[in-house]
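Shipment paperwork, digital attachment
Item: protein structure file
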Amino acid sequence: MEEKTSGIQELKIALGSWRIWCSLAFQDIVIRYRGSVLGPFWITISTAITVYSMGFLYGALFHIDRSSYLPYFTTGIISWTFISMVIHESTKIFIDSKHYMENIQLSSLVYIGRLLVRNLIILMHNIPVFISIALLYKMELNLHLLLIFPSLIILCLNAVFYGTLIALVSARFPDVGSIVSSLLQVLFFITPIMWSPSNLPEKFQLYLLMNPFSYFVALIRNPLLGIGFTPSEQIGLCVLTLGGFMVFIPTIRKYIRRVIFWI
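Attachment content:
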């Protein structure tokens, strides 16, 4: 019991410093696009180019109606961009924050919050791309769109849980970053981003259920497309979230204070 309380206390300390990690995240965006005419809207333009060029191409290759494929593909790209960037940046977040950690006494989880908010800002800049697709094909809205708010909360919780675990392992073993980058390239193709699960033969459906990224992608895709979550998706998300929390709490209690000695 003491172990769990200690882990939760560490989390409370980080949450109490929310102004700090929000300020650091906004500063990161400002610095990244300083001197640029369009600023962070280059994110929107870059995503739009990817979506429209690849969407039309793959729609033609798969012989799928663009009015149904492009919204599906767009939500997949937006979801994957957020997820992959959180994972990739988690591998180096403590190393990139070394200067702060050596000079300011803050919980190391503050830098995980910084990473999360930074990528949420990028996610918000990508949403207009989907809006343009929705207007182009006159998509109808329904009440499932409201699920985007609890979905984002669940996605952010998982980003904190698993992002912290990846960050800790990467701080201790620097080679993990390269391994994760290679795995992300493979995971992009085996996760339903460009293709629909309905295209998979029945004998491969089990492998899809074992892919955690398919559940995380659905958290953003389903509400934007106006569809609900299947029972298997609900169960999968519950297992992933609760499992992540149960590993996260004892791990930060034991290792989060050691990060400064690893980097």
